[in-house]
Design goal:
The chain is of the alpha/beta class. It has helices at 17-31, 47-54, 80-85, 96-101, 106-118, 131-135, 139-150, 156-160, 180-197, 200-205, 216-223, 240-247, and strands at residues 6-10, 37-41, 59-63, 90-93, 122-127, 163-166, 207-211, 230-233. Helices cover 44% and strands 15% of the residues. The longest helix has 18 residues, at 180-197. The protein binds 1,3-dihydroxyacetonephosphate (13P).
């Protein structure tokens, strides 16, 4: 299996540009021997500082959102063209916090994903169910629907190169992690759905991460599951020691 482990920090709305530079300078020596793909997703205003601090290192930088239009009257938004002009290689799309507070939907996530791919930016597409959906027994159909919606009209070749992050909403920032079996089950469901929508080779190639209260004490067990290719990490990625410990994972 040729998939790599991808350890991505999602800083959410945290850190100023100065704090970003300082953090990355401290982090780089701690992660230099990591065998994994390492990403820090930072607020828009921190992108220049992050790109500069990480230049030439094994830390890649991501944005946390983008608009699907190239430019126009969309106050407060940032386009893929703008991210591309800065050589931002990754963008998180459809995080549950954006779906909950900023009206992201499967349709807009799909528009954003297609736009990102057109600029050569790799999307990290998030999906995940609420606790109520899980209790109601509709987790699988919900996740499958999110995947189908987000990937609409995206080619097999493009899907093979992108990242899907499974983030159960009940495990985000709550300290409650899905068990490695629960996370593996849903990442397997996602991979099967990709196989059904495309083919086995595409499903084998796509990277699927787990996110939700991942920390150094539980990451080994989660990252070693066969269908899980690393993590999308919030809180723990804000601490140098924790980010470095997560980055040190070896399969
Ligand atoms: P926590 O790791 O803080 O639970 O956040 C997960 C997340 O939302 C990453 O995108």
């Amino acid at each position: 299996m040729s998939r790599k482990t991808i350890v991505a920090g999602n800083w959410k709305m945290n850190k100023t540009p100065a704090e970003t530079s300082e953090f990355i300078k401290e982090l780089l020596p701690e992660i230099k021997d990591s065998k994994n793909v390492l990403i820090a997703a930072v607020p828009f205003v921190d992108l220049p500082a992050a790109l500069e601090a990480a230049k030439g290192s094994n830390l890649k930088i991501a944005a946390q959102n983008m608009h699907w239009k190239e430019s126009g009257a969309y106050t407060g938004e940032v386009s893929g063209a703008m991210l591309k002009s800065m050589d931002v290689p990754y963008v998180i799309l459809g995080h549950s916090e954006r779906r909950e507070y900023f009206a992201d939907t499967d349709e807009t996530v799909n528009l954003k994903a297609k736009a990102a791919l057109s600029y050569g930016i790799t999307p990290i597409i998030c999906c995940g169910e609420t606790l109520q959906q899980r209790k109601d027994g509709i987790m699988q159909s919900w996740i499958e629907g999110q995947i189908e919606g987000a990937l609409k009209d995206i080619t097999a070749e493009q899907v093979a190169g992108l990242i899907i992050a499974y983030e159960p909403i009940w495990a985000i920032g709550t300290g409650e992690t899905a068990t490695s079996e629960q996370a593996e089950e849903v990442c397997g469901i996602i991979r099967k759905k990709v196989a059904a929508l495309y083919d086995d080779a595409t499903a084998e190639a796509v990277h699927i991460q787990y996110g939700g209260s991942v920390k150094p004490s539980n990451s080994n067990e989660i990252f070693s599951m066969p269908n899980i290719d690393g993590g999308l990490i919030g809180g723990a990625s804000l601490k140098v020691a924790d980010f470095a410990a997560l980055a040190a994972y070896e399969c």
